[in-house]
From TrEMBL:
Location in or out of the cell: Cell membrane
Membrane-crossing segments per the record: 33-50, 57-78, 84-103
The name this protein goes by in its record: DMT family transporter
Membrane topology according to the record: Multi-pass membrane protein
Species this chain originates from: Nonomuraea mangrovi
Record-linked InterPro entries: EmrE-like, Small_drug/metabolite_transptr, Small_multidrug_res
Keywords from the named record: Cell membrane, Membrane, Transmembrane, Transmembrane helix, Transport
Gene3D superfamilies: 1.10.3730.20
Amino acid sequence: MAWIYLLVAAVFEVVFALGTNATEGFTVLGPSLLTIAAAAGGIFFLSLALRTLDVGVGYTVWTGIGSVGTVVLGTLIFEEAMTPGKALAFVLIIGGVLGLKLADRLSPTTPTV
């Protein structure tokens, strides 16, 4: 369930990042409220995921998915440039996220304090 919570948190993270662009410095009410709600939702679901996952794994995966999702949607929505360097960085981030998930699955479960 922790990985599902983490994916939901990452979706909120993408909405937060994209919404921030539309707030115009938090001077536009609708996007500002959406951005604040998305930030709260992301942190809430991240906290649920971190009840099971290591904070290093959870936070890194959350920010990785959020970063990739934000750049992909920023490219589609805001017509930001997609360069070969960005594409390579995405592949590396996705590889790191998958590696962390695999490493988490293979590591022995340790009790949290």
